[in-house]
């Protein structure tokens, strides 16, 4: 990412410019560890706190970071770590943070803080993109009056530690990770890493559609925008649907089912955008003569978009002159007249 100057991308996943000042030679390792949701077994209500203390030690009380102590033992959580070969100087001490009314931060430390956080945000987005493409899981939409939007960021160098709250819900969207298919994750990460620095707008939009567990039918629009972003601006919805069918279906039955689903997805999209109609996830809609929950259209469309993104990334990898995810009329002809 850093060698390919990812900060030149037209959009970023947080503090993009700060990445420019990070040398790839300075990074010793980067790891992401996922602790899944608690489903069954011995109940340990201090599960998360104990794991965090095991990984990072106990935070000094003057930093006032205790939010993780209130997290339910049932949730899963992600640990993103980057280890550097150099030290981080000027980490504020207890005296710097408590001796006066305003805390004392040196500019060199603030610069490093932004750099390190930028790397973690980029890694998080990259890893989430991989997981959501490999495992476009179905769940259910359940709005929570007290959603979890939380987390914290920690820097350790020598004997000094600093931490601050950094809230996110990007890891709250449910994913069923199939351990038997973990080799797919490694393959996908290696492939995606080659093109991650390009302006993959459709992938960015896909991540917006799955960035939280607090989703609604409006997120269906993000999925369709992501799908439409794989084609030229003037491309008709009919052509987009046809390309999905040609790319993803192996039988007439599958083709009809996918076409009917996409017709319904676009109908809901048009009614939201142009008709001023809102859809509740538990509203009933008709698909092939049967009533289904409106949210089912979101979950099924998510899988289609993920598969089309994978196809588009594969095309990009095989065409060194391309710099974006794009299907065109030549792809249609090649799929129609395969020989």
What is the strand tally? 6
Helix-strand string: EHEHHEEHHHHHEEHH
- Strand order, sheet with most strands: 1-2
Note the total helix count. Answer: 10
**Domain module tally:** 2
Question: What's the rounded overall pLDDT mean?
Answer: 93
Which structural class do you get from the secondary structure elements?
Answer: alpha+beta
Can you tell me about this structure?
By secondary structure, the chain is an alpha+beta fold. The chain folds into 2 domains: 6-168, no CATH class; 200-336, no CATH class. Helices cover 42% and strands 12% of the residues. The protein contains 10 helices and 6 strands. The chain has helices spanning 47-56, 94-98, 107-134, 182-195, 201-209, 219-228, 237-248, 252-273, 294-318, 329-336; strands at 27-35, 77-84, 150-157, 160-168, 284-287, 290-293. Strands 1-2 form a two-stranded antiparallel ribbon. The relative contact order is 0.11. The mean pLDDT is 93.
Short description:
With 339 residues, the protein is of the alpha+beta class. The chain has helices at 47-56, 94-98, 107-134, 182-195, 201-209, 219-228, 237-248, 252-273, 294-318, 329-336, and strands at residues 27-35, 77-84, 150-157, 160-168, 284-287, 290-293. Helices cover 42% and strands 12% of the residues.
């Amino acid at each position: 990412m850093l060698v390919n100057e990812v900060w030149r991308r037209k959009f970023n996943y947080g503090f993009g410019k700060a990445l420019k000042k990070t040398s790839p030679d300075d990074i010793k390792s980067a790891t992401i560890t996922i602790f899944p949701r608690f489903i069954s077994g011995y109940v340990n209500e201090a599960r998360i706190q104990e794991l965090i203390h095991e990984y990072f030690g106990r935070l000094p009380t003057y930093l006032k970071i205790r939010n993780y102590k209130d997290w339910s033992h049932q949730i899963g959580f992600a640990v993103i770590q980057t280890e550097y070969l150099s030290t981080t100087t000027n980490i504020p001490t207890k005296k710097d943070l408590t001796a006066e009314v305003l805390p004392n931060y040196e500019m060199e430390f603030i610069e490093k803080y932004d750099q390190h956080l930028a790397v973690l945000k980029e890694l998080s987005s990259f890893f989430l993109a991989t997981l959501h493409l490999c495992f476009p899981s179905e769940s259910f939409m359940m709005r929570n009056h007290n959603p979890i939007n939380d987390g914290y960021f920690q820097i350790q160098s020598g004997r000094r530690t600093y931490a601050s709250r950094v809230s996110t819900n990007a890891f709250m969207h449910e994913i069923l990770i199939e351990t038997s298919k973990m080799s797919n994750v490694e393959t996908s990460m290696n492939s995606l890493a080659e093109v991650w620095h390009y302006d993959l707008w459709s992938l960015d939009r896909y991540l917006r559609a799955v960035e939280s567990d607090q989703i609604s039918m409006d997120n269906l629009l993000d999925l369709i925008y992501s799908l439409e972003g794989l084609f030229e601006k003037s491309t008709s919805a009919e052509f987009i649907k046809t390309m999905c069918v040609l790319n993803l279906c192996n039988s007439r039955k599958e083709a009809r089912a996918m076409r009917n689903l996409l017709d319904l997805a676009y109908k809901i999209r048009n009614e939201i955008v142009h008709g001023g109609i809102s859809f509740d996830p538990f509203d009933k809609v008709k698909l092939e003569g049967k009533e289904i929950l409106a949210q089912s259209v979101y979950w099924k469309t998510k899988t289609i978009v993920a598969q089309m993104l994978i196809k588009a990334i594969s095309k990009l990898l095989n065409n060194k002159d391309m710099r974006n995810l794009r299907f065109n009329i030549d792809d249609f002809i090649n799929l129609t007249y395969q020989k």
